[in-house]
Amino acid sequence: MNIENTKAQMRKGILEFCILSVLREKEAYTSEILDTLKNAKLLVVEGTVYPLLTRLKNDGLLNYRWEESTSGPPRKYYGLTDEGKEILKELNTTWTELSDAVNIITSQKA
Prior knowledge:
Elements: H1 3-22, E1 28-29, H2 30-39, H3 46-58, E2 62-69, E3 72-80, H4 82-106
Antiparallel strand pairs: 1-3, 2-3
């Protein structure tokens, strides 16, 4: 078993959920999203996040707007659409159920 590959696959599986959760309260630009993920110890590179943001936008879960920046080029701010908010609610429920099930299984004595 390649443990690093398994850990990477586990992280990838929850990345969409985490990105939608980051945008739950307010819009954010990519660097803010990456910083939030990194601060939570979810190590992600820009090359992974940009295509994911585009896919979530194309799926109708995110929208974006451009805002001028005083410290460089304009920034693209992402936010949840109404559909994105609904999907996030469903994912929250699924995550709770899955997390509870995994905790039950992994805390059982052999």
